[in-house]
Amino acid sequence: MNIDELKNTWNADDSFEEAPQISIEQKNKINLPLEKVRKNMRKEFWYTLITFIIAFFAVLSCKTFKLQFYLSVLIVSMAFVIGFFFSKFFKLYKEISNTEMSTYDSLKDLLQQFYLNKQYYISFYLSFVPFLVCEMIIVIEFIPHSKPLSELKTAVLLIGSVVIGLSALFLMGKYWFHRFYGKYIEQIESLVTEFKK
């Protein structure tokens, strides 16, 4: 095969076609749910920051230094974990702030980013399991009881609190994600499916 035949074969190959372009009307349709997601991401950041400020002031109101110290270490540890997840969160925020989505492939890539961040979100809630356990241990140890708790009562209280706390975390996380992001991601998915047709 000579060079001219190779060039003709290369030019005839349709596999390198550009991805379908998205019209201005379609971009406008997709920008509404994206703007809602961006707005909710900003809200969530501020809610988290305010929660940490309140938590630090609550720790200062504790009576014993030992309790203050344990709770401070717990809150600082949580701040590191939350910082890691928010770094991933901000990466997505920057990605969806980029309004240069002009092809179907860029929309598919954005949806992939949403799916990945949904997994981060689930991991975020699961990462609170050790913090919940530590918090329950601190509460059981430092709350005064009229009679000392037996080891069995302490174990039942700890396990029950963790099971109830985990269930509440799971349900709250699922509700929170759907309310703040899930319904908008579903809108974007349906728009991508519509563009594909």
UniProtKB/TrEMBL annotation:
Organism, scientific name: Chryseobacterium geocarposphaerae
Protein name: Uncharacterized protein
Superkingdom: Bacteria
Keywords: Membrane, Transmembrane, Transmembrane helix
Transmembrane annotation, as ranges: 45-61, 67-86, 120-143, 155-177
